[in-house]
Amino acid sequence: MAEAAVDRSSKSGLGPAGKPFSTFERLVAWRYLRARRKEAFISVIAGFSFVGIMLGVATLIIVMAVMNGFRTELVSRILGINGHMIVQPVDGPFTDYPALSSKLAGVPGVKMALPLVEGQVLASAQAGGSTGALVRGARAEDLTKLKTVSDNIKSGDMVGYASGDGVLIGTRMADQLGLRVGDLITLTSPDGDITPMGVSPRIKSYKISGLFEIGMSEYDSSIIFMPLEEAQLYFNAEGLVQSIELFVDNPDDIDDLRPKVEEAAGRQIAITDWRQRNQTFFSALQVERNVMFMILTLIVLVAALNIISGLIMLVKDKGSDIAILRTMGASAGAIMRIFFMTGAAIGIVGTIAGVLLGVLVCVNIESVRQFFSWISGTVLFNPQVYFLSQLPAEMDLSETISIVVMALTLSFIATIFPAWRASRLDPVQALRYE
């Protein structure tokens, strides 16, 4: 008779012959997940575990997407106004820059070669007020090709610039100095004329031809574009340029282009790429991104620990049930799988809900920012502090997958010990005082 009972229990999925995650095991696991009045406290812990995993996964996805968006926006703006490769002379000044620029622009993969004369000045307005600025002298035809500037002229035009009679300044600089199109801006350079009394500063006023707005406040408040010939005269660099900036099709292919550019130059040159010039900045971004990932992972870890505590309490509460199942022929593996599925279900559902919530917020990130700004009555994500005019978010598929895998792994690991403890429960001890 005992053999017949064991045989029947095996056929029903209770014994060793039952398949892993059988219908019987799934039904019992689902039964333990449902809230009942006497198990309300356990259900509350399970609910907190679910919410914790959901919020942890969503927060990770949102923060990583925002940081990716930050990097993409900053790179596009930094590389939109600065060259990907900076070519500087070694054996002598670039007096042949028109011909050299044409040679370098003809290298496959190079979109544009921009000869430049640069210098630091003090910019001031007639009515008072001054600020430090970087003057970049460039040809009008080159600046027209630089779409980051030419397509973002907010006031005025490039007609005066092309004729050599005007300069372009950023909107934030104009606001700081109280200047508008048509006003005069006075530039003071410490490297002026040499006199018997020493070097005297060079002071000259220029008419503002247009105002540009790149969208990065650091550039909009500090850069002045001046016609190349005028900049050569102002900085005592007649007939030469200090560097030639190259804009390429793919900034990540800089290493492959370097030997081609050196060969096309036909002379000794020094090449600096965008990664070297911004190494500290982008390294700081990467470190911050990695640290944020590790810190926010702790939210998911805490939620996983809640799964452990909730399952341990559930095992204690279901001791008699486990004992009865064991006496009916359920194997230790079946008991372990039941409680494993109970805990894993919380992790899986919480992770899925977290992904959905994270994607929803990322898609509507700017609306969310404006809503909280309206609720709090303050300006969240101030452009003057963060350099960008709106909150960016860019989700990365591989990164999202890694977050999901991490959350599921922590959830599954958290269920192993309580499930193993349930499978080791002695039916005799559990039923002794029942």
Automatic annotation (TrEMBL):
Biological processes per GO annotation: lipoprotein localization to outer membrane; lipoprotein transport
Subcellular location as annotated: Cell membrane
Protein's membrane topology: Multi-pass membrane protein
Residue intervals passing through the bilayer: 40-67, 291-315, 335-359, 371-389, 401-420
Predominant localisation class: membrane
One Pfam family this sequence matches: MacB_PCD
Sorted UniProt keywords: Cell membrane, Lipoprotein, Membrane, Transmembrane, Transmembrane helix, Transport
Domain of life: Bacteria
Single GO cellular component term: plasma membrane protein complex
Start and end residues of each ABC3 transporter permease C-terminal domain: 294-427
MacB-like periplasmic core domain ranges (all copies): 50-263
Family: Belongs to the ABC-4 integral membrane protein family. LolC/E subfamily.
Name of this protein: Lipoprotein-releasing ABC transporter permease subunit
UniProt source species: Rhizobium leguminosarum bv. viciae
